[in-house]
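To the team - zinc ion complex, inputs and output below.
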Amino acid sequence: MLETEYTLRRRAICAGFRDHKFDALIVSAPVNVRYLAGFTGSHAALVLEPDREAVLFTDPRYQIQASQETACRVRVVRGPLMPAVSRHLARRRLLHIGFENHRISLEEHQLLEKDLPLGASLEAAGSLIEQRRMIKSPAEIELIRRSMLTASRAFQAAIRRIRPGTTEAGLAAEIDHLMRRYGAEKPAFETIVASGPRSALPHASPGPVALGLNQLLLIDMGACQEGYASDMTRTLFLGRPTPRAKRMYHAVLEAQLAAIAAVRDGVATGEVDRAARRRLRADGLDQAFVHSTGHGLGLEIHEAPRLGRREKTLLRAGMVVTIEPGVYLEGFGGIRIEDTVAVTAAGCEILTPVSKEFTAL
Ligand code: ZN
Ligand code: ZN
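Output:
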């Protein structure tokens, strides 16, 4: 990511201070520090102030890394960071201090408050930065696309290696290994491989069970590459698909395509969710669709917006979201189809390049 992009992000956040009447903002969530300063360490606080260089506080473990990764001024602090942050704010005589109330521990809040000068106040800033992170820059979309390509390659190579006796856990390990070999830092979340009736558990953990013949096989996976997550699910059939499995698969695919067709700049996220549900209702399967249609992703695997039934957030060009309807029938199994898509003015671009035809292995 170019340094200018971080500078622009910090400037945009500071420009919003007037609405909130903040003199400064303390950013303490590592993912938000990374978004605004490029620093990838796990322990830092960033102080933003309009028209001044941002200051990044971290501990001695990160001294070298911070100087390499960020153009912000770096302060290395021994012990907890927050007392040093509040002494800095006091020296600057700043009074209205925004902080990430949903991302800070009670202890950090107390440490911060202790050294603040009289008259200064800590004010909840909420998810100010998460709101901005919803809209991705072209550079970010490119990174998500690359992460998705890595995951897709790993998926395709891994399913070719399925042999009699391959277990869920073995296949999940193979997928994770291939993602790293193809350029990912790590999986974006714990890879899900669930076969047969276990695929009816939307968040099944891969077990030591051998993949059985004439069963569904659900794989939900994603890479974390250059910090950016990708997410996809495909459901396959081991053996010759039964008519019931085929019918269910096509219902889910139609629902997924209906939801994708609804995606466009200006459409409410709830509308996309309802498009999927409406299609499943036609097949009597809407009761078996037990989660929301999708979620945003980027530096984190689950970000705003959520694509749920009652969500009102409007989709905007530049958002990257998943579209992942599924149906789950106890004793039979589950089918989910998930793509990562980038919202555009006229619709969306599907970033997951893997076929959605019902594949039998
Ligand atoms: Zn997924
Ligand atoms: Zn997902």
